[in-house]
UniProtKB/TrEMBL annotation:
This is 4-hydroxy-tetrahydrodipicolinate synthase. The record marks 46, 109 as: Part of a proton relay during catalysis. The active site is at residues 135, 163. It comes from Paenibacillus marchantiophytorum. Its EC number is 4.3.3.7. Catalyzes the condensation of (S)-aspartate-beta-semialdehyde [(S)-ASA] and pyruvate to 4-hydroxy-tetrahydrodipicolinate (HTPA). It is an enzyme of class 4 (lyase). It is found in: Cytoplasm.
Amino acid sequence: MDFGRVVTAMVTPFDDQLQVNWDQVEPLINYLIEDQQSDSLVICGTTGEAPTLMDDEKLKLIELSVRYSRGRCKIIAGTGSNDTSHTIHFSQKVEKLGVDGLLIVAPYYNRPSQEGLFQHFKAVAESVQTAVILYNVPGRTGVNLDADTTVRLSHISNIVATKDCANTDQLTRILNEAAPGFLVYSGDDSNALPALAVGCQGIISVASHVIGKEMQSMIKYYLEGNIQQAAELHRKLHPLFTGIFRVPSPAPIKHALALKGMETGGVRLPLVRVSEQEGQFIQSLFV
């Protein structure tokens, strides 16, 4: 399964009442595919505010995304939770919608052992036939899915990739030891080029909502051997890579989208919109 080089973790558009703006889903998908050149989209991930979406909202969003993408990109659905039973049940429902992959986050709050993590992901993967992508984000979950456990999981036939927000040391160990064909994606925009340099497939990105074309160019330069051009573009984009995480995501990227003319509304509590000062800072990143 090839999910491409630049995968956008899509925001969920809301209306003024913070209900899902169903009319805005198709324009947003078209924009991310056509204008920002996303190879794949993650629906109902962290950036999509999955923790505050109801299951019925998620199912409708995923179904519409499969329909509206019309085969122009891969659709990956975030179906993980900190409850193995619920993750299995929900993943089986989502699988029937025709998605190309399932993104399963490491269980948060419970803080399981490495063996608990292995058994969780193994149980989920064995309950579905769809490709599974592991998601390691210790800053949000409170637990690191370490390299050894990721390598063990890579030998399960339908666990095909990982999105890992760890440092390049961990990414490198996974790349060295994982099963043949297992793909590693960085989950940290500012690490996109360094991760590519050690052999990662690409980036599962937030910044690609607004600089996806530039990120594709950076990766193309690198793959063609134009290392200096890739590095120069990385340095140019770096302030935005880091700046959109100065306050909790996805509020900054939703503001950045509005600056681009793509209105996706506010964020649900306990998140809040960016302040006026924060909005001015985000705008300054595009100067």
